[in-house]
Amino acid sequence: MERSGGGDPQETLRLLWRSSQARSGRGRPPKVSLDKIVAAAMELADRDGLETMTMDRVAAALDVGTMTLYTHVPGKTELVDLMLDAAWQELDLVSTSDNWRQQVELYAHRAVESHKRHPWLRMASTTRPPLGPGLFARENFLIAALSTTGLSPSDVGAATGAIVTFVESAAAVQAEHAHGERLSGQSDDDWWAARQVFWETIFDPERYSAIAQTWDQGGFDRSAAEAAAKAFDLGLRALLDGIAAMAQPN
């Protein structure tokens, strides 16, 4: 598990907001740019996982020496922050709707797609997030949407946090199913089929009667990926219903 926000604060903020001074016209132009470094790192992490993304491998992908990267970014810690914020910027949260619920749903579904493109997102803890433009664009979008509900400013902040926590966690679960199947080469159906003996010889329907009854009534008649998607839709709907109920005048 990588943790964001662990690098030098001043340097990380400078990189996130691209606030370095412009280069002079002297000398040769750099072989790579910061944006190219971030893109290459994301591509490696997308394919092989965040834990295998190293400065050496990024340099090799860009056909430059590793020391060249260090002239742009201090190390992997800061690079992960840049990758995270770049992924958040990809959400491109511009809505044509003035309905707060539709705006939140737009964010939710784009977050799901982002996790599918970048399954490594689930491997980065953002409890101390990189304070970049991607993060602030997401937060501002959600706060602006929820501010139209009539909730108090305190509840708007809490609701924003609840939405982000649920959406990012549930989106990661959905991405995990697809990514796990790709890495293992084994489908969820094949994985469960290999464990059919559990249901035949170990599972006790009397001891776990609620599970057995729900099973008999078709409550589990879907694949693991389908179940995760349904859980996401149900959870999001319930969360937004709850926010809507809180916003109603007494």
Automatic annotation (TrEMBL):
Alphabetically ordered keywords of this record: DNA-binding, Transcription, Transcription regulation
GO biological processes: negative regulation of DNA-templated transcription
Domain HTH tetR-type: from-to ranges: 31-91
Pfam families named in the record: TetR_C_1 (PF02909), TetR_N (PF00440)
GO MF annotation terms: DNA-binding transcription factor activity; transcription cis-regulatory region binding
Cited Gene3D superfamilies: Homeodomain-like (1.10.10.60), Tetracycline Repressor, domain 2 (1.10.357.10)
SUPFAM superfamilies attached to this UniProt entry: Homeodomain-like, Tetracyclin repressor-like, C-terminal domain
UniProt DNA-binding residue ranges: 54-73
Matching InterPro entries: Homeodomain-like_sf, HTH-type_TetR-like_transc_reg, HTH_TetR, Repressor_TetR_C, Tet_transcr_reg_TetR-rel_C_sf
This protein's record includes keyword Transcription: yes
PANTHER family with a match to the protein in the record: HTH-TYPE TRANSCRIPTIONAL REGULATOR RUTR, TRANSCRIPTIONAL REGULATORY PROTEIN
Name of the molecule in the record: TetR/AcrR family transcriptional regulator
Organism field: Kibdelosporangium aridum
